[in-house]
Amino acid sequence: MKFTVASLASLLTLVSAIPTPSPMLRPDTLSQCAASTGAITYDVLTSRIHKNGISSDITTLVTFTFPDDTESKTCEFNFALNNYLHCNPGYPSGTAQIDVYTSLAPADHSTTT
């Protein structure tokens, strides 16, 4: 599944700034992961997606907890560009796409590898 970097960055920067309608689930935590080492910085305030082939690539890990009443329901990701671009280094460049994956073992603490 691919989404634009701008869309994901916008959602992740805005998650704590918007009111949550009852059917919307907000992330429990955001964490950043350095691709070259696997180091995780757990529970950060903002997300980051960085890939340039020169310095360490950074990805953002987003953890959700789904309540029992969501069982057997479907979900969709909805990303919207926001007005908080001053928090970001600039508009996305390159392919401006991201991949979304699921994990059986979500991040729950910082690591060095």
Which shape, going by the Cα principal axes? Answer: globular
Distance between the termini: 27 Å
Strand content: 15-25%
Question: How does the major sheet shape up?
Answer: 3 strands, antiparallel
Number of domains: 1
Q: Can you tell me the residue ranges where pLDDT is under 50 for at least 5 consecutive residues?
A: 1-11
- Spell out the helices and strands N to C: EHEEEE
Report the radius of gyration as a whole number of Å.
14 Å
Helical proportion, percent range: under 10%
Helical segment tally? 1
Organism: Glonium stellatum
Protein name: Ubiquitin 3 binding protein But2 C-terminal domain-containing protein
InterPro entries: Ubiquitin3-bd_protein_But2_C (IPR018620)
Signal peptide: 1-17
Please specify the SSE layout and strand pairing:
Elements: E1 2-3, H1 5-14, E2 29-34, E3 40-41, E4 58-63, E5 98-99
Antiparallel strand pairs: 1-5, 2-3, 2-4
Descriptive labels:
disordered N terminus; three-stranded antiparallel beta sheet; 113 residues
Your description of this structure?
The structure is a single chain. The longest helix is centred in the first third of the chain and has 10 residues, at 5-14. The model is unreliable at 1-11 (pLDDT under 50). The protein has one helix spanning 5-14; strands spanning 2-3, 29-34, 40-41, 58-63, 98-99. A hairpin with a 5-residue loop joins strand 2 (29-34) and strand 3 (40-41). The protein contains one helix and five strands, in the order βαββββ. The protein has one domain (1-103). Helices cover 9% and strands 16% of the residues.
